């Protein structure tokens, strides 16, 4: 399954992660900014392979729809995911590689994925998407707002995975 994104500047595509993406995945996870924001950054080949396997398993079980955000050369610039919860809800997550930030890639990818997730009723019926980020992650807050997510609540810190307070934005 691939999803084409609108083409304002750079053509982008969302496609499932592939084993060939391992070097780009590890390179992205070496970025200190990304490592600080992720609950479980990847540190080595074995860990990255397990992560790629988990993405494929999520697709097979219709519990996690994970996409690499790629440009024309098919190299990953980022990641977007819908993690299916219960009662028609899911959580949207994403990251952008350091070299691709500041170009609107995250907003375009999150908006496209959100529309897709709410429209694809044949795989799983979703009525609400949550986007959660740390309170001090202002770029993620801007992405959420640009993509039509409304601030729903302030979440308390929950160390060690979530050491700071967070925002839950909702789109339905």
UniProtKB/TrEMBL annotation:
GO terms for cellular component: cytoplasm. Coiled coil: none annotated. Residues 12-172 form the N-acetyltransferase domain. Keywords: Transferase. It holds the Pfam family Acetyltransf_3. This is Protein N-acetyltransferase, RimJ/RimL family. InterPro entries: Acyl_CoA_acyltransferase (IPR016181), GNAT_dom (IPR000182), Ribosomal_N-acetyltransferase (IPR051908). The keyword GTP-binding does not apply. It comes from Lentzea waywayandensis. One of its GO terms (molecular function) is protein N-terminal-serine acetyltransferase activity. PANTHER family: ACETYLTRANSFERASE (PTHR43441:SF10), RIBOSOMAL-PROTEIN-SERINE ACETYLTRANSFERASE (PTHR43441).
